[in-house]
Design a protein that fits this description.
Structural class: mainly alpha
Number of domains: 2
Radius of gyration: 22 Å
Strand order of the largest sheet: 1-2
Order of helices and strands: HHEEHHH
Amino acid sequence: MKINLTNKQYVKLIKLLYIGDWVITSHRDADDEVKEFTGIEEYIYSFYKEFHCEEMIEQSDGIYYPTSILEESVEEYIEEYDEDTFWSELMQRLTQREMLRKYGRKRIEKMSVEELIEKQQPIEEKYHEEIHKNGLENMEIKGL
């Protein structure tokens, strides 16, 4: 199969590839490679000259790399993702912790989906309001 892309589409594709690779690899050690995706990014990057993207991709010793221009062009998306993920995860984990303290694991496991939602929702709303209003200002770690 052959896929035809315009230059604009290729630029969007390499941005998506960079973001996807960043999501998959940024939290891993260098030797903790996800083999499922190995090579696809470099293969797509290898067409950079055909799409006149020399400012976004560079090659050294047969390996293709994103340039700082490509990295900076997607930085805002990555920062938005990080910010949203942080607050969502914090709210979710605080809600889970409170549910466990209040009801216990065994009781929660026996709850129907409807009951679980009914009990979680006010807790989530409480944390959502607090985080939206005060961020981390009122959060402390006991014993420090």
